[in-house]
């Protein structure tokens, strides 16, 4: 009797097609949303990890890292930001899933565009000069006014908070450790897009370089857009723009890797492939 494994398995057809399309691609644009970092072990909705990292907030009834709009005292909020960003953005360990993705792209001419603000691409072998992060970077702070377009390295500020952070109460015991704008004294915030005050000046040059690279695509061989984990939370950042890139680039192809929302637009015809798996399962299947 054959015993069937209950483990989910990627079906063969999309995996084989993706393998062929990768072989035929001269250039690859990796376009990623939160689903990729979730598959890589950084799931903002992971309640167990939240409890482990932030026990005081868990006791208050909070269950995920999505805390925008939750009314907390400013020192508790900064305690959260420091612990969360230290974990997500400054972890020193290489990430196996991102490393495998880098190996998959190989020597092909490539770019990355991602809504993720965790720098996991740059931390795992992708060229930082070829990564566009339109939603910002947890590695920087900005003024909330903002009084200047400048941003500041977040690490020294976060280290200062963490040195004064009491894990049990979730409080920052020394208010002098709470960061303020070095220019005007107003509040600061991670340099990520939450509203019109977002300072995008550090990221737009990469966006311009990516636009030029895409403009060269028709003369530089076949483009493959490998979109991973970009659902409908903010489809205007990655998902819809990638459909448009493929739509307007002759010969380009779109691979959409998404366990919940893999659908591709009908007008792209046989130039689009829906892969209904998470990235880890797909990379397992490609390696098999
Ligand atoms: Zn300021």
Automatic annotation (TrEMBL):
Amino-acid biosynthesis listed as a keyword: no
Coiled coil: none
InterPro entries xrefs: DHS-like_NAD/FAD-binding_dom, Ssirtuin_cat_dom
Keywords for this protein: Metal-binding, NAD, Zinc
Keyword Nucleotide-binding included in the entry's annotation: no
Domain of life, source organism: Bacteria
Binding site for Zn(2+): 143, 147, 181, 184
Positions of the Deacetylase sirtuin-type domain: 7-288
Protein name per UniProt: Deacetylase sirtuin-type domain-containing protein
Native source species: Streptomyces graminofaciens
